[in-house]
Design goal:
single chain; 5 strands; 5-stranded mixed beta sheet; globular; alpha+beta; binds tetrahydrodeoxyuridine
Length: about 140
């Protein structure tokens, strides 16, 4: 805690501009940071058949993993219809994807309204008793 996530929030808000969300109108952007300090952005991508919709968070994770990156430090998320009025917590499916690649004790989830209005959470608090790789061993 105590880190400054303003830059990641700014990048997430910028990524939100690419949101493809003609059905809900709810635009989300994410900025995922790996353990080497590299950023992967994501936006939500909706679909006429609805269920293929991909959240901003998973877009960012899948971009990174598809490039061979599998260790992450934090993710900043910003979402809303007309601007960003409330915090946008990740959906359950995205929390489970985070559980696959992140340490729930240390992975930080930054819920942002603006560059200077955000809160830091840990994956373990958003997904208590999460089921992950270690359970399958
Ligand atoms: N959505 C995200 O991209 N991330 C979240 O954290 C919550 C929901 C998207 C999915 C859908 O395109 C729209 O927001 C409304 O649910």
């Amino acid at each position: 805690m105590g880190d400054n996530y303003s830059n990641m929030v700014r990048i997430a808000i910028k990524a939100r501009k690419n949101s493809y969300s003609p059905y809900s109108g709810f635009k989300v952007g994410a900025c995922l940071k790996d353990i080497n300090g590299n950023f992967y952005t994501g936006c939500n991508i909706e679909n006429a058949a609805f269920s293929p919709t991909n959240c901003a968070e998973r877009t960012a994770f899948f971009k990174a993993v598809s490039e061979g990156v599998k260790e992450f430090e934090s993710i900043a998320i910003a979402g809303g219809v007309f601007g960003i009025k409330d915090y946008c917590p990740p959906c359950g499916v995205c929390r489970q994807v985070m559980m696959e690649f992140c340490n729930p004790e240390s992975f930080k989830i930054i819920l942002a309204k603006s560059e200077n209005d955000y809160k830091e959470m840990l994956l373990k608090d958003l997904l208590p008793e999460g089921f992950g790789r270690l359970n399958v061993k």
